[in-house]
Amino acid sequence: MKIKFxxxxxxxxxxxxxxxxxxxxxxxxxxxxxxxxxxxxxxxxKFILTKEDQVKVNExxxxxxxxxxxxxxxxxxxxxxxxLIFKRFALSLGYGENKKKHSSSWLKKxxxxxxxxxxxxxxxxxxxxxxxxxxxxxxxxxxxxxxxxDISGWPFDNLQISSVAAxxxxxxxxxxxxxSWALVETSFAFGWMPVEDYAHxxxxxxxxxxxxxxxxxxxxxxxxxxxxxxxxxxxxxxQMFPLIRKMPDRLEILxxxxxxxxxxxxxxxxxxxxxxxxxxxxLTYSNAVKIANELIDEAYGWGGLYGNRDCSAMTRDxxxxxxxxxxxxxxxxxxxxxxxxxxxxxxxxxxxxxxxxKGVPYLxxxxxxxxxxxxxxxxxxxxxxxxxxxxxxxxxxxxxxGRKIIGKAVITTLYPGAELYCIDPGGLLLKNISAMTILEPxxxxxxxxxxxxxxxxxxxxxxxxxxxxx
Length: 470
Fold this sequence. Notes:
Elements: H1 2-15, H2 26-30, H3 51-66, H4 79-91, H5 104-114, E1 124-128, E2 132-135, E3 160-164, E4 169-175, E5 181-185, E6 190-194, E7 198-200, H6 203-209, E8 214-217, E9 223-225, E10 231-234, E11 240-246, E12 251-258, E13 264-271, E14 276-278, H7 285-295, H8 311-319, H9 330-335, E15 339-342, H10 348-358, E16 364-368, E17 371-379, E18 382-395, E19 401-412, H11 429-432, E20 435-438, H12 441-448
Antiparallel strand pairs: 1-4, 1-7, 2-3, 4-5, 5-6, 8-11, 8-14, 9-10, 11-12, 12-13, 15-20, 16-17, 16-20, 17-18, 18-19
Helix pairs in contact: 3-12
C-alpha cells in the first residue's frame, strides 16, 4: 500500500510539471533558423516596395524622427497625465530586485524627486550620447508584480519603457529635483532618462545634423569609433547618422559625444559598408533576409533591457533600415500603420488561409494581445513567422499557469509548442491572433503623422495591466 501511494504521489508530481527539457520546441528544432533557407532565386532581388514608394515613406520617417527637436511644448503637456503613473504604482507597489515588496516611502521619495508641480521646468533639445533606457519612474531599480515566476516577475520590470539608441534626438521636458534624471520625449516614447546619457544641442548642431542625407546601421552590436580611434558606442539595427560621403570601402558619418559642459560635440567616424548603408536600404527580399538574420536568435529583452529586444522592438528595428516607421507598442504597430485586416472572430483555419492569401512576406505583421510577429512566407502550406518571444502559456495538472520559455527571436509556424502536452489550449498562438497589417505605403503615409508620441489619456496606455508575452 505504501509503494502504491508513493507511485501516486510521483505521478501527481510529474503531472504538475511541464518539462523544461528538451529546451527547444519542435518548430525551432525542425525549421531552419536561417532566413536564407526560405529565399528563392526567383524573388531574391525582387522589390517588396517600389523605389518610389520607399522614398515617400522614408521621408515621413525622417520627419517623425526629428520632430522632437521642433516641438514647442511636450506632447504630454500636463503634470496630471504623468502623475497617473505614480497613482498606478501606488495601487500596486510591487517587488524590487531583492524580491521584497516596495514600501510606500520608496514611491514617495521618487515622487518628491520627480517634482512635477512645476512640470515642464525646461524645454531643451538634446541627443543621446550613449545607449540608454526610458524609465516609468526616475530610478534604475525594478518593479515586478510578483516576487517569483516567469509570468509577472523577472524579467518583466514594469518600470522599463524602452531602450534608446545612442545619438537619438530627444526633447528634455523636465529635470528632477536632484538634477540626476530628466523626463524626455523621443519620437516614439517618453520617460525618465539619466542626465549623463544625453548632451544638449543648439540650432547650429541641429542644422548640421539634419542634413537630409543619412546612413543606417545594418549590423547589430558592432562598434563605432571616431577618426581618432576612440570608442563611441555599440550599434543597433536601424540607428541613423548624418552621411558625409561614401568611399569605396567605408562611409563617413557624423557622431555626437558630450563635452565637459554637457553640450553635444560632433565627431567623424569611418564605418565599413558591412555595418552601415545609405538610408533607406532598398527593400528587396535579399536585403530583408539579411536584416532578419542579424536579429535571429537574439535573447529576449523586455523593453530593450540588457541591450536586447522584445517583440515590438524587433519588428520596429527590422523595418527601420528600410525607412519604414513603426510605433514602439505592439498594438499600435498593427492598428496605426498600414492596412488593417481583422481576424478576431474567425476560426483558426480561416485565419491562416487569409494570412497565406493576403500576407506579403517581410511586409506584414500579425498580432495577438501582447505580441507582434513578422510574417515571412509559407512552407508546406503553413504560414511562417519571425518573432522574439518570451514563452508559451502552459497549464499543469492542477491548472496552475506557467510558461514554456522560448526566450529569443525565432522562426516558427503559427503552432509553436503544439506538441507539448502542457500547452494551454486556450493560449495557442493561432487561436489568439486577432489581426494582420500589411505595411502598404499609401496608408502608412496617411497615418504615420499621428504616431509621433501618442498622448497617455489613460494610465493603461502607458503601463500594461499585466506584464509578459501571453
